Structure prediction request, 211 residues.
Amino acid sequence: MGSVLLLEWFVVPPLENNTYLLVDESSRKAAIIDPALGSDVLLSKAQELGAQIIYILNTHGHPDHICDNGRIKEASGAKLCIHELDAYRLLQPLSKDSLLLPTVDVLFKGGEILQIGSLKVEVIHTPGHTEGSCCFYLAEEGVIFTGDTLFAGSIGRVDLPGADPAAMLRSLKRLFTLPKNVKVYPGHGSLTTIEDECWMIESSYIEKLLS
Prediction:
């Protein structure tokens, strides 16, 4: 019997971040992708589903995506994970009142496979928006979580510290080699698919945008 993914999706103010709770139906092991300021709804839903959060997965280290890392880690004991090139961002207090700087437990290099019960999550290093931006791909379920790398109809900004337009182009070209029917769950905005965004490459939109 294959794995069954239970996916809960929340949109969190003030920047309309998407945050995700992934639960393996059989084992009730779970992971959170980019908590943002969603600790209350995420922890409540995990409790409702009887899920044990074992990983907090950061697609990158920008403050709007990582705000509640500490709260969720403290409440659940989950391992906090981020790419090694973005780990330094987690060492910067989010505000003058921010005293809780959670320890990073797992530093990605890219290519790792995380086991969440029977779910297998591949870490794909996709630099461009930041040095250590990552996407999380569940091949068997046909879904990928792209953070601020790929959105419905657009791509992540490359004019911020640590961004790299050339790296972004390489990362996007890599994503567009995935099966066309893979569902894309981005860091902001609506669900899309790899097929629905291939026009960017086919029309040279990305090259023009990043040139």
The chain has a mean pLDDT of 93. The first helix runs from residue 39 to 49. The two ends are 48 Å apart (CA to CA). Residues 5-210 form a domain with the Metallo-beta-lactamase; Chain A fold (CATH 3.60.15.10).
